[in-house]
Amino acid sequence: MKAVLFDLDNTLIDFMRMKKISCEAAISAMIDGGLDMGKQEAYDLLFELYGIHGIEYQEIFQKFLEKTMGKIDYRVLSKGIAAYRKMQIGYLEPYPHVRATLLMLKEKGIMLGIVSDAPRMRAWLRLAEMGLTDFFDVVVTLDDTGQTKPSELPFKAAVTALGVEPKDILFVGDNPERDIKGAQKVGMRTGLAKYGQLFPDNGVKADFELKDITDLVAIVGDFHKNK
Length: 227
Description:
Blueprint: E1 3-6, H1 15-32, H2 39-53, H3 60-69, H4 74-91, H5 98-107, E2 111-115, H6 120-129, E3 138-140, H7 142-145, H8 152-162, E4 169-173, H9 176-185, E5 189-193, E6 208-210, H10 215-226
Parallel strand pairs: 1-2, 1-4, 2-3, 4-5, 5-6
Helix pairs in contact: 1-2, 1-4, 2-3
């Protein structure tokens, strides 16, 4: 095994914890700004819209206000976005043991990379905010291929950038349908990040299951010992 590739959100970053707390803050701020709606009802509708447009959708609060107020009230919108951003900075953090695990893998001579559906700037900002930018040899984002997982294109772009065979790469992600299935299409080994999994397996099986990211150290060690 020469390289390990990671999904970013809910694999390295506890993204949904940050998302939920930030959205709660945004809703409270919009209600304070004039939105006439209960907090729980607003929260449920906002995540319903995320389900339609995608968790990375850039104009979700605009869609939310069009749905609830029939227009975009920029006084309300600005309050919501400002509260979201302020809360996001404070709660965006890696899962436990991420930094230590990345260090141990680097010490073993393993190349590391990211394949994320996030736009390029968002992905790099998240890595920078957590102090993780220097760990990765390759970072493939939505802007690099225009395709989201499970399309083969992002995975193939990472393979090309690393310069190694897919069979020598382990891909770790939380989403069976997007991460695991996509990596398997191009011939990578796969590890399911059970600690961040939000979506059902739907029959998709990874080669390994990780209860904690530190499980990677043993997986890589066993592979080289068996070789």
